[in-house]
Design goal:
Largest sheet: none
Helix content: over 70%
Strand content: under 5%
Distance between the termini: 91 Å
Radius of gyration: 26 Å
Number of helices: 12
């Protein structure tokens, strides 16, 4: 037979399936759990303590899903898989996810540290494979921050930010940046040459790479019309 504490937690989780934590009253929780109002305060201190306990249970589910992600020989691809599974959990559990990642009180779910550690283990594999541009800690913090931001925007403004293409775009940008897998922007070289040429013109000094400026000038000239036209 379940205890009063277990019934309260279960009732709160069930209510979170359809409404946000702030919209759930302690009376509704007690009625569903079939307990008196004082029981919440006896078990959890107050509603904030109850919601923190429910958030920790949410993290247990979240981490269990994460541990089921397959590991391949490509740790960067595994980071992308981890990102996508994170998004899938958020979209499937919107009210619980917001409770987990936007706690309103002073008590914070401690399982966030375990979530970060799990991500860090995948980032470490990238480092061991020579595919990490920054420290594992900064990479993990950057990825998780961006991942959570994408999810919260998708949940709060689905008509503007709910498209999976947005998630994939941010995913590839952030993971590509920390691992060095992003596509090189060839415009950077052109911009550098233009800047050098401008500095040379303004200061009266020769550009650092005169040949590069000449090549750029030729490339920017309009094409010569064909004699056949």
């Amino acid at each position: 037979m379940s205890t009063a504490r277990e019934r309260i937690l279960e009732a709160t989780a069930e209510l979170l399936a359809t409404k946000d934590a702030l919209a759930i009253s302690t009376r509704a929780i007690c009625d569903r759990a079939k307990v008196g109002m004082p029981e919440i305060y006896r078990q959890f201190g107050d509603k904030e303590g109850l919601l923190t306990a429910v958030a920790d249970i949410g993290f247990e589910r979240f981490l269990a899903n994460k541990r089921r992600n397959p590991l391949t020989d490509d740790p960067v691809a595994d980071l992308r898989t981890a990102w996508d599974s994170h998004v899938a959990f958020a979209l499937g559990n919107p009210h619980l996810y917001r409770l987990m990642f936007t706690p309103t009180g002073s008590a914070k779910p401690q399982a966030i540290k375990e979530a970060q550690a799990l991500l860090l283990s995948v980032v470490e594999r990238c480092r061991e494979a020579g595919r990490l541009r920054t420290t594992p800690e900064l990479a993990g913090q950057s990825i998780l921050s961006a991942n959570v931001g994408v999810c919260l925007m998708a949940l709060s403004f689905p008509e503007l930010f709910g498209g999976l293409d947005i998630s994939q775009s941010v995913r590839d940008a952030v993971i590509g940046k920390v691992t060095g897998d992003e596509r090189e922007d060839t415009r950077i070289g052109t911009a550098t040459v233009l800047a050098q040429a401008l500095v040379g013109t303004l200061t009266g000094t020769a550009p650092a790479d005169g040949a590069a400026v000449d090549r750029l000038a030729r490339a920017l000239r309009p094409p010569v019309p064909s004699s056949d036209t």
